[in-house]
Amino acid sequence: MIPEIEKATSAEIRIFQESKLKTLLIYLNTHSAYYKRLFKKHAISIDAIKTLEDLTKIPTTSKEDLQEHNNEFLCVSREKIIDYVTTSGTLGEPVTFALTDNDLDRLAHNEAISFACAGMQQNDVLQVMVTLDRRFMAGLAYFLGARKLGAGIIRVGNGVPELQWDSILKFKPTYLIAVPSFLLKLIEYAKSHDIDFNNSGIKGAICIGEPIRNQDFSPNILAEKIKSQWDIQLYSTYASTEMNTAFTECESQKGGHQHPELIITEILDDNDHPVATGEVGELTITTLGVEAMPLLRFKTGDMLKSYADPCDCGRNTTRLGPVLGRKKQMIKYKGTTLYPPAMNNLLNDFDEIKSYVIEIYHNAIGTDEILIKIATQNPNDVLLQSIKDHFRAKLRVLPEIEFLDGKAIQKLQFPKLSRKPIMIIDKRKTTNASF
User: Fold this and answer.
1) 316: how many CB neighbours lie within 10 A of its CB?
2) Where are the alpha helices (DSSP H) in 121-249?
3) Whose CA is closest to 110, among 235, 315, 305, 288?
4) pTM attached to this predicted model
5) Beta carbons of 95 and 67 less than 8 angstroms apart
6) Separation in Å, CA 146 to CA 39, 59, 175, 289
7) Which of 228, 138, 226, 53 is nearest to 420 (CA)?
8) What crossing angle do the helices spanning 33-41 and 10-31 adopt, rounded to 10°?
9) What is the torsion angle, in degrees rounded to the nearest 10, for the CA atoms of residue 79, residue 80, residue 84 and residue 85?
């Protein structure tokens, strides 16, 4: 199930996207109060935007723009809206997105071809281990996508290993979609209840919310811990509410494939200029085919690399590498620049650590500090020193570390109305975000 445009040449994909871009600009200039004002303010003639390179003539759109002018992005009347979703509020106040019937069809198409990327077929059965409620777009997208693909669906929701295994053993799914660290909890539960998980019929898991690849695409520590025990394929998928589009790995597992019929991508530096091939920059997207709230040059805040070389799977589309971190998550700590995912990877190396949160805050002189709160069954000085040594060796930094009760960590990870576990709490004055 590979759309023909994804097998086309790079030149053909470019021509295709430039045609779609022209259609989008006319649509925005007609229906979007926000973009009409933007074009007028900057004296932008949409007729002058003919190529993908011409996009740099248009100012970028930020999350703050969405938060401040949320309703001005709406391009349809209220009666055409079928579904409302909200962002998780990772980097500030949540933003509402409306979807029309056509948008829901597009969302289903997006996820169906993304699942197909990871090898799912019509005869597969997908167990969905994330919530479908609380205005969460991802759970809805997974349900619609599997239905569009023709695959079976088991809607279990997040958490509760006992219920997950009851459904696996009863309904025999072949694929799971889950946060990867939860797969370790499934393994732990299976071992303690004599469940032969390697004969459960699960072929693969599509992993959301946490990275499973290093920057060279090799499995990171979390993925290695899963794979060393459970003989299943792990596929990374990356998406956001604002994008209405997913980037999912194929069997080659060398980055998430872009769907050029659904989205245009740019990788930009701090001055909103495209970075050189192979360099890290901020993913900036332009959505194609979205009816209710399309976005033009929207800065996602995610720092990553893109790859344009042909893939063994037959797709010639751009691929996105593992997310290095959120731009606003960047920490300058005692002369070292790092992102929280690097710390997550190290903490996942310790079986003794049952859960944790990372707090970032400013000290009295305004520089960044890091406090890692850890839950373990047996807190002791030997474990503490081992964690410290690991940080010194791998990251050349030594954050403050303290042990807490597991219930205290759970309370921090799951505040009221949260839809997913929060691992990073940023208390710095420049941001007020949790991740």
Assistant:
1) 19
2) 137-149, 161-171, 180-192, 221-227
3) 288
4) 0.85
5) yes
6) 39, 36, 11, 20
7) 138
8) 100
9) -160
Q: Is 172 exposed, middle or buried (0-12, 13-18, 19+ CB in 10 A)?
A: middle
* Placement of tokens 């669906």 in the chain: 153
Reported as half-sphere exposure (CB side, CA atoms, 13 A), residue 402 has a value of 8
- Over its C-alpha atoms, the chain yields an Rg (Å, rounded) of 22
- Give the residue among 286, 311, 370 at the shortest CA–CA distance from 24: 286
| Distance separating alpha carbons of residues 330 and 333, to the nearest angstrom | 9
> Tens place of pLDDT for every residue, the chain, 435 residues?
789 999 999 999 999 999 999 999 999 999 999 999 999 999 999 999 999 999 999 999 999 999 999 999 999 999 999 999 988 665 557 889 999 999 999 999 999 999 999 999 999 999 999 988 888 899 999 999 999 999 999 999 988 999 999 999 999 999 999 999 899 999 999 999 999 999 999 999 999 988 999 999 999 999 999 999 999 999 999 999 999 999 999 999 999 999 999 999 999 999 999 999 889 999 999 999 999 999 999 999 999 999 998 899 999 999 999 999 888 878 888 777 888 888 888 898 898 998 999 999 888 878 889 999 999 999 999 999 999 999 988 888 888 999 999 999 988 988 876 667 788 888 886 544 444
Helix axes 161-171, 180-192, angle to 10 degrees: 80
Smallest Cα–Cα separation from 287: which of 71, 132, 103?
103
Which residue type sits at 45? S
* Of 389, 289, 254, residue with least CA distance to 19: 289
Q: Is 329 within 8 Å of 339 (Cβ atoms)?
A: yes
| Amino acid symbol at 121 | Q
Written as one letter, the residue type at 289 is G
Residue 237 CB burial class (10 angstroms; 0-12, 13-18, ≥19): buried
Burial (CB count within 10 angstroms: exposed 0-12, middle 13-18, buried 19+), residue 56 = middle
Token couple for 1: 């199930």
CB 420 within 8 A of CB 137: no
Return the HEC string of 188-243: HHHHHCCCCHHHCCCCEEEECCCCCECCCCCECHHHHHHHCCCCCEEEEEEEECCC
